[in-house]
Amino acid sequence: MRTHAITGRLLPLPIDPLLSELAARARASRRLVLSAEPGAGKTTRVPMALLEAGLAGKGEILVSEPRRLAARLVARYVAAERGERVGGRVGYSVRFEDVSGPETRVRYVTEGVLLRRLLSDPELSGVGAVVLDEFHERSLSTDLALALLATLQSTKRPDLCLVVMSATLESGPLARFLSDCPVIESPGRAFPLRIDHLERPDERPLEKQVVSAVRQLLRDEPDGDVLVFLPGAAEIRRAQEALGELGKSQDLLVLPLHGDQSVEEQSRAVEPAGRRKVVLSTNVAETSVTIDGVTGVVDSGLARVARHSPWSGLPRLEIAKVSRASATQRAGRAGRTRPGRVLRLYTRGDFESRPEHDAPEIRRSDLSEALLTLHGAGLPGFDALAWLEPPPAAARLAARKLLSSLGALDGGGISAVGRRMLTFPLHPRLSRVLVEAEDRTVAARGALAAALLSERDIRRASRTAFGRKAALDGARGDSDVIELMDRFDEARDARFDGQALGRMGLDVRSVRAVERARSQLARSAKNRGTEPESLDEEERRVRRALLAGFTDRVARRARPGSAELVLAQGGGAKLSEDSVVHDAQLMIALDVEERAGKGGNVVRLASAVEPDWLLELGADAVSQSDELGWNPESERVERVERLSYGNLVLDESRTRARPSPEASRILAKAALASPRFSLADGGLGTLLRRIELGREQLPEAGFPELGPETAAAALEQACEGLTSFDELGAEPLAKSIARSLSPEQQRLLASELPERVRLAGGRGLEVHYEPGRPPWVESRLQDFFGSAVGPSVCRGRVPLTLHLLAPNQRAVQVTTDLAGFWQRHYPGIRKELMRRYPRHAWPEDGRTAAPPEPKPGRRPVR
Ligand code: ADP
Ligand code: MG
Prior knowledge:
The chain is α/β, with parallel strands linked by helices. The protein has 30 helices and 34 strands. The strands form nine sheets. An eight-stranded mixed beta sheet has the order 4-3-5-2-6-7-1-8, with helices on both faces. A six-stranded parallel beta sheet has the order 9-16-13-10-12-11, sandwiched between helices. A five-stranded mixed barrel has the order 19-20-21-23-22. Helix 7 packs across helix 8 (233-242).
């Protein structure tokens, strides 16, 4: 390792005069809050001061940093300052690297490593003190670590020393939480700053804006270094290229600073240099790393921040505007040693419209990983800890639900699977995938899949181009994740060569990040069982492992071949055109882009699953129903047996129902709703109205009231033992209604409320019983020859209304009084009829005339 430039020389720092008091108070109270401006010397000096005051006991001091970069750089610097080698007395442990040894007494770690340590050794044996650095960032891990440590201190480790350090001065609530522990504040000194904003937003690419701003600072300020805040490595690389010419012409050292560099590259950016420097940095230089000599700051106002996919809960990085507090910190970096200049690449209005602070992560984060960690530490959940700010109830519930659906919890506690999941530093969905991959003996492939899903997308080319290419290459079309794995394999075959990756449309940095994560995961992932026999089998197993992490995210095409998806959890989405999943009906949706308005959510990554896999998930997952239902097409009751997964029907079989009371009820209900069995007209209606008329006109017979309910009941009765409309003619229905009458009533119904009457001439006529009008009959006038009076019903109490028709079937008279008709109207009408129908016989006295012979077979006309 390269020797450090600062070997053996301890610079005086603002914190120095406070160190002995600080150590003494920490020793006395075991809890201490320290706030001091960035660069004061907190990170580099406090842990060593605690060590020298004997607070490590016989063990170590752990110092947790939110960023890998800070842990590595500071450890190296602290060792070098004292002329020691890093990994000796001072070391560090971060996700992919452990630089420490048996002599190590001060160990800088990332928050993730600290949490893991707390998990594997909940009492932190061998640790005398823990320093939580950069507490003002309020990452979820720091909040969780604080809760665990405070709880540990008040239970099993009262001797443990806890120091919380922050770059902002709002330490009140924190000190109160730590039972009013001592607070040491070092307000620091700051030189005046001149801060300029843009007059109006600059639409040019960010790197062009950076070049202009740097050029202006160099012109206005005779010396001093420039620090440029950019959101991420990609923007830094572009700005570095854009600054090339200016750098050469002004003899500048243009240095990037971000997490993906080697520690040597990172040190180079931070250490003093012989030339004027322009450091292009992510927000690590905001408070975690101090670069001496900076007098000019260019602030893009942006940062890449950790968010969570609302769909899966998986972490993802997004570029976002920084808060006013962050912008102020960034500006402050220019005024540490003398008055400074700040150029903000945004307007004052933009600055003023930003939130004052970023909300602490615990208020907006997916909590499933934290909850699993707690269970791993033997704690039953969030309530088991004292929190500076307890996590919101909805997020806690969601975390518990997810862990249960992943099988990580059983009953109240962690399951064996949950425990295995903890071995992987991944979101629980992905660690579940990896555990399943171990069980299915595809651990190495599972490690790659998990790495691809946990890191940034490796594809650089537009997704559309990618999708088309995949289609052209004859991708197997069943999993976007396997497609990504294939891309990665090609990259590995090309030995991750930058140019080759570029030609493949892959992002070099992302591919390398995936490779780092993959190799680490692959080291701890162990196969269990028999190897797959073919590539096909291997891929099936990988897809199955993926399902294990996304059992609550199953989707099914609305129709074969359609991109519309129905989601098991309810609702719908659209499968991206770029997906290689072309044929499968069922799939899991691993990543969803929420598009407000425009056609809803789009599933970006999908992976096919087979129905049997869902069935094998067990009785909880798949529900079976066996119901009778009405089929309007076949007009019959059917037995519907369904297998459902959430909202999705996996399998359905319909068979003719066997007769049962339930089937009759369903048939009756359908009949009541069908015009075919309407009670308003047709034979049934007539029957009901005859009975109704009987109730009115023959009160002595005591006909029952047959309202709609009675009719419906009769209908149900008629449906007994039947299952279809075909079986249920109107006939059984009428019989069933009639059955509710006494024999006497039935006799009266037939004789006094007849369906047909016979005229004197012998002709039979249908009696029309219609709602709202008296009963009536109609026939040709001649048919009434020979009848002195008209027919009546209800023991002669209700004369029928007669429609008397001319030979052209038009009514010549409508009357209830046939005798009166013969007498008063017939003579006049007769003359007219004789003129128009001379070939018909029109006898003078209709009462006595003989009616014409009815033509055989001809039915009376209505
Ligand atoms: P704080 O934690 O209070 O922000 P630090 O302890 O990180 O401050 O840094 C204090 C000082 O130590 C810085 O101002 C800088 O001069 C020096 N320093 C820290 N780390 C490095 C490094 N890696 N290279 C060069 N100088 C460093
Ligand atoms: Mg610090």
